UniProtKB/TrEMBL annotation:
This is Hexuronate transporter. It is a multi-pass membrane protein. Its main location: membrane. Residues 26-428 form the Major facilitator superfamily (MFS) profile domain. CDD domains: MFS_ExuT_GudP_like (cd17319). It comes from Sphingomonas panacis. GO terms for molecular function: hexuronate transmembrane transporter activity. SUPFAM superfamilies: MFS general substrate transporter (SSF103473). The chain crosses the membrane at residues 22-39, 60-79, 91-110, 149-177, 183-202, 241-261, 281-299, 311-330, 336-358, 370-393, 399-420. One of its GO terms (cellular component) is membrane.
């Protein structure tokens, strides 16, 4: 790779701020669907005590159910990554959303652990499309200097979904006399409103009647990319692909742990029930929201101040890893709200780290390869999540302690950043011609 081929991603011009902001309407749609995605995903964690009682689950049974969701997520992630590179964001999102909503509603009809695992598997296939399609849409609608912030904004929808779930779901369960099944059906049916809005409102920027010429020039200010989708055999040759994928392998399992086990941890450690662990979870995910947006903003601000993409992304991720570090000692904290602050700081750090990590494929690869790279990374992250879920189930069943799990959660981000630095020390844009 020559130095000319390995130039950093920088704008070819400095156009005036756009007359029009329709790209933020698209970002708001991505925010909303990510929130829905996380409501559907996190309901199992919120309902864990009820489901364990009703379906007679052990910790290992629960870990196995989560395992099958993550297995499907890994399979679907790599498939949807390629699918969206071929069909585009509009069709890709419609297909993914339809699959996961149907699977989510189907949870209301299950009666056994096996049936629940099957419904979770189908949910994982559909939900795996959310981030590959969303990041492909951001790549289409935002210039490089705005992408990390836009990803941080829509990724904050995950935390909104995680906030809404512990407030909404216990209320729905109580409304139906302790029956958890209607909660799945009602939330699934209501969310179909988003699908209608997406089909009506989304088009590519160049074809959208609501996009002004000035805004289109702002969106298209970066160097032109090849438009032909790259072959996987070429994509996997790049170290940059594996820098992203290996980092996802390290950090994704930690987020799965927070999502699926945090309600149960708070319930066991601080003696909270289905109604009372809602406020602590709200605080945790509000902090996560702040982290998601702040992480994207910080690296973008550094780039505007003249920092390189390499320095801005990695410095931000290092700050995030340091903020997460205190999580290793949280189990020794007896005060609930002190523990909530430490956990919230860790989840905020994760979301800020993740907002920058998600931006790397668009920093490093042409638009036609972004979905595939994200798909590969998501699949590898899913495999990490599967293995970590089995580890968590075994540790809790045999040791009854979360301490080893929190230790892994504290170290994972430093390991991820080290891998990125080793495999892509300059975050240089890949030289497609060499493939």
């Amino acid at each position: 790779m020559t130095s000319a081929e390995a130039q950093q991603l920088t704008p070819v011009s400095n156009p005036a701020p756009p007359n029009g902001r329709y790209r933020w309407v698209i970002c708001s749609l991505l925010f909303a669907v990510t929130a829905i995605n996380y409501v559907d995903r996190q309901m199992i964690g919120v309902l864990k005590p009820v489901l364990a009682s009703d379906l007679h689950w052990t910790e290992i049974d629960y870990a196995n159910v989560v395992f099958w969701f993550q297995a499907a997520y890994a399979i679907g992630y790599i498939g949807f990554g390629r699918f969206v590179d071929v069909v585009g964001a509009r069709v890709g999102y419609a297909v993914a959303f339809a699959i996961w909503t149907a699977a989510h509603i189907a949870h209301g009809a299950v009666n056994t652990i096996t049936q629940f695992a099957m419904a979770r598997f189908a949910l994982g296939i559909g939900e795996s499309g959310n981030f590959p399609v969303a990041i492909r849409a951001v790549t289409e609608w935002f210039p490089a200097r705005e992408r990390a912030f836009a990803i941080g904004v829509f990724n904050a929808g995950a935390n909104v979904g995680a906030i809404v779930t512990p407030l909404l779901v216990p209320w729905l369960v109580a409304l139906y006399g302790g029956n958890w099944r209607p909660a799945f059906v009602i939330t699934g049916v209501v969310s179909l409103v988003w699908l209608v809005a997406w089909v009506i409102l989304y088009r590519s920027p160049a074809k959208h009647p609501r996009v002004s010429p000035q805004e289109l020039a702002w969106i298209e200010q970066d160097p032109a990319d090849p438009t032909t989708p790259m072959r996987w055999r070429d994509i996997i040759r790049f170290r940059e692909t594996w820098a992203y994928a290996a980092a996802k392998f390290c950090i994704d399992p930690v987020w799965w742990f927070y999502l699926f086990w945090l309600p149960g941890y708070l319930s066991e450690r601080y003696h909270l029930d289905l109604k009372s662990f809602g406020p602590p979870l709200v605080v945790v995910y509000l902090m996560s929201d702040v982290g998601s947006v702040a992480g994207g903003w910080l690296s973008g601000r550094m780039m505007k101040a003249g920092w390189s993409v390499n320095a801005a992304r990695k410095t931000t991720m290092l700050i995030c890893a340091c903020a997460i570090l205190p999580i290793f000692a949280v189990q020794s904290v007896d005060n609930l709200w002190t523990a909530v602050f430490i956990i919230g700081l860790a989840t905020a750090g994760h979301q800020a780290f993740s907002a920058n990590l998600y931006t790397l494929p668009s920093d490093l690869f042409p638009r036609s390869a972004v979905g595939s790279v994200i798909g590969i990374g998501g699949a590898i992250g899913g495999v990490g999540g599967m293995l970590f879920s089995l580890y968590i189930g075994r540790v809790l069943q045999e040791l009854g302690s979360y301490a080893p799990i929190f230790l892994v959660a504290a170290a994972a981000y430093f390991v991820a950043l080290l891998i990125v630095q080793m495999l892509s020390p300059r975050l240089a844009r890949v030289a497609i011609a060499s493939a």
